[in-house]
């Protein structure tokens, strides 16, 4: 079969599995083999289908892989993946909330506030809205982080 025919067949197959794709990826993340999950997502992204959903789960893999390592490049990769997903119509509702969480962990308070507020505007009836409102309240009233000390003078 030609490339066009193969792509058409993959698109038809994807249409059949689309309702299960999110739960399957969520289950795959539970294995905690984040590199494998990211490889799988990369393969699924080749045809440009379900970009919002796949970008969201790429963000989840990076976020989970970063754990508590605040200096990790995975947090930045997670923020980038969530940002990409948030701009797409098929992104899961929790995308903006997760983006806010990553920004909060990175110390980007204003970005976190904007992402959380966007989540609440987009999904005001979210079951976790009260928790996000509480997070927002804490972020807005927290003192600004102290500036780093000046670098020592070089002689």
Summarize the helices and strands and which ones pair or pack.
Layout: H1 3-30, H2 34-44, H3 51-66, H4 73-86, H5 95-106, H6 109-122, H7 129-141
Give a brief rundown of this model.
The protein is 70% helix and 0% strand. It has helices spanning 3-30, 34-44, 51-66, 73-86, 95-106, 109-122, 129-141.
Describe this structure in words.
The protein has 155 residues and is an all-alpha fold. 70% of the residues lie in helices and 0% in strands. The protein is built from seven helices and no strands. The chain has helices at residues 3-30, 34-44, 51-66, 73-86, 95-106, 109-122, 129-141. The longest helix is centred in the N-terminal third of the chain and has 28 residues, at 3-30. It is globular and about 65 Å long. 26% of the residues are buried. The model has no long low-confidence stretch (mean pLDDT 90).
What are the main properties of this structure?
155 residues; 70% helix
Distance between the termini: 70 Å
Radius of gyration: 19 Å
Number of helices: 7
SSE string: HHHHHHH
Unreliable segments of 5+ consecutive residues: none
Strand share of the residues? under 5%
What is the typical, i.e. mean, pLDDT? 90
- Principal-axes geometry comes out as globular
Assign the structural class, choosing from mainly alpha, mainly beta, alpha/beta, alpha+beta, or little secondary structure. Answer: mainly alpha
Name the helicity range: 55-70%
The total beta strand count reads 0
Please outline the major beta sheet: none
